[in-house]
Write a structure and sequence with these properties.
This protein starts with 12 loop residues before the first helix and ends with a helix. It is mainly α. It has one domain. Helices cover 50% and strands 0% of the residues.
Length: 110
């Protein structure tokens, strides 16, 4: 359940809220993501089966996430397949907040 960016989808609040049908967590996540992304994300948009899994995606993952868009455009299973991964400014924003994703990407190369 590693996303394109290397984050573990099973640890994502949107995935957890969907799996547990947790409306309080949806509300909390929508508020936080709205603030972080300077946009409006509604609680009802917090439903996700995982970034690379079939099924529903959050509005962020489906429409906003630049990392997911880039990986899909390049045809990569994850950013771990990109030779520019270590110096990528798009991925760098996420790495700055969670350096462990580089390890996840190296371990989960397709």
């Amino acid at each position: 359940m590693i996303g394109y960016c290397g984050l573990n989808c099973e640890e994502c609040d949107a995935y957890i809220a969907t799996k547990n049908n947790d409306d309080a967590l949806r509300e909390k996540t929508a508020k936080l993501w709205s603030e972080l992304n300077h946009t409006t994300i509604l609680p009802e948009q917090i439903n996700c089966a995982g970034c690379r899994a079939d099924g529903v995606k959050t509005v962020f993952c489906e429409s906003i996430c630049a990392v997911r868009k880039c990986a899909l455009q390049q045809g990569f299973a994850t950013c771990g397949n990109c030779r520019k991964m270590e110096k990528c400014p798009t991925l760098g924003t996420i790495v700055a907040n969670n350096p462990d994703i580089i390890k996840n990407l190296h371990k989960n190369r397709a």
